[in-house]
Amino acid sequence: MPTALALSTKVGDAALKKATGRDWPGWVDRLDKAGAAAMTHAQIASHLHEREGVDDWWAQMVTVGYEQAKGRRAKHQKPDGFSVSGSKTVAAPVEAVFGAFTLARRRARWLPGTDVIVRKSTEFKSARITWNGGIGVRGEKGTSVEVNFYEKSDCSGRPKCMVQVQHNKIPDAQAAERIKAWWKQRLEALRALLEP
After folding, report:
1. What crossing angle do the helices spanning 56-69 and 41-50 adopt, rounded to 10°?
2. For residue 81, what are the CA distances in angstroms to 11, 88, 163, 173, 177?
3. Are 165 and 145 in contact (CB under 8 A)?
4. Where are the domains of the chain?
5. What letter would DSSP give residue 40?
6. What is the pTM of this model?
7. Which CATH class name applies to 78-194?
8. 96, 101, 140, 185: which one has the fewest Cβ atoms less than 10 Å from its Cβ?
9. Alpha carbon 54 to chain centroid distance?
10. How far, in Å, CA of 51 to CA of 62, rounded?
11. How far apart, in whole angstroms, are the C-alpha atoms of residue 33 and residue 38?
């Protein structure tokens, strides 16, 4: 079993074996013998849960790992496209970071030229965004961004906020890698804008 499998699923052999009773090579072998090569994603997950007694979350994880091992799923790939994420801790109050995403004038200061619609937000907790352009990647129109905000503080009690961004429904692996790199740059721009 290639090491890249554990890295792409973010679950190593030891953690997987502790949770499910088998490591990656064990699951790949077992699923091959069960005919998983001819099954859909849902069928593999169902088999793991119903016949192997694997918890639902772990059944999904093992299914994704199996698909990656067999070349059926690429890194960052989900059933509805590709998904990438990034995060940044900013030495600013959660209200300021939340406003930088949800208020158009503030957003334009660090995400210039973007075309977004904030569909839903929960004050200082989360935002759901329809992304219609601004990165310059083919297929970005109509993708979806989920943003979560976590209030923190440093040892002296000064406010901090950890922001996590997940960009979903990206059409292909190449676009996913470009969007991931773009978000890394933009989150650093957000930090530079908001920190004193």
Report:
1. 130
2. 21, 24, 23, 9, 13
3. yes
4. 3-73, 78-194
5. -
6. 0.67
7. alpha beta
8. 185
9. 23
10. 14
11. 11
